[in-house]
Design goal:
Elements (H helix, E strand, L loop, with lengths): L1 H14 L3 H8 L15 H8 L1 H20 L17 H17 L12 H11 L4 H15 L2 H20 L4 H17 L1 H9 L10 H18 L1
């Protein structure tokens, strides 16, 4: 249990390194939590600081998830020796979950962080890289239909345990449990987005709504033909 507790804590501390705030300090003290939606994640970074800043945020936030799930479990720590009773698979998902929690509640930044999606993606680059493309497909589909980034993220999170159950059950129980926990957690972190969608005031990006643009183009063409 000492190994589990120590590596869980290390992963949490790594997760607490916020890409948005690190990039903000490099830019001279910008705190994106005081701008836009008040979130420290990549979407708010893009809206308030631009693409290059947001790219740096995403790289850091994804990277720390990959380090937590892929590097920390294998560390040889003299003060926390390897415990043969702890499954390596369960240890990896525990470290991944700790990093996501650290992103949401960063100890270095008064527990005000992001919503965990990018860091969760980072953990999946180690835990289940084969699921990244299907999850990206789900995310893009929902985004291009609705224009809501938050809804696309929540839908992709829910798709994760569904894909694991379809492709890896019952062989990979740790990943399935991780997927279920992450889906619930990501939805909980986006509860304000859900409320804004219900109230009709959620930020929507019509530029990415491909099907809406196609429908408008079709309608325009039809109007022209009728006019002739």
């Amino acid at each position: 249990m000492l190994e589990l507790g120590t590596k869980f804590l290390i992963s949490y501390l790594i997760g607490s390194l916020m890409g948005g705030l690190i990039m903000g300090r490099l830019r001279g003290g910008v705190d994106i939590r005081t701008m836009g939606s008040g979130n420290a994640g990549g979407t708010n970074a893009l809206r308030t600081q631009g693409a290059l800043f947001a790219l740096g945020v995403i790289i850091i936030d994804i990277g720390k998830g990959a380090v937590a799930a892929g590097v920390v479990p294998g560390l040889d720590l003299p003060f926390a020796p390897t415990d043969p009773q702890i499954s390596r698979e369960w240890l990896a998902v525990a470290c991944g979950a700790a990093a996501v929690a650290g992103h949401v509640w960063p100890i270095y930044h008064r527990f005000r962080g992001g919503k965990g999606a990018a860091t969760m993606v980072g953990t999946l680059t180690v835990l289940a890289p084969g699921l990244l493309l299907p999850l990206l497909g789900v995310w893009l589909l929902v985004l291009t239909i609705t224009g809501y980034v938050g809804l696309a993220t929540m839908t992709a999170a829910v798709a994760l345990p569904a894909f694991v159950a379809a492709a890896r059950w019952p062989a990979d129980q740790p990943l399935l449990v991780y997927g279920i926990v992450m889906a619930v957690f990501i939805i909980w972190c986006h509860r304000s987005n859900v409320q804004r969608m219900l109230d009709g005031v959620e930020n929507r990006n019509p530029k990415v709504m491909l099907f809406r643009r196609l429908a408008k183009q079709g309608g325009t063409a039809g109007d022209g033909d009728d006019g002739h």
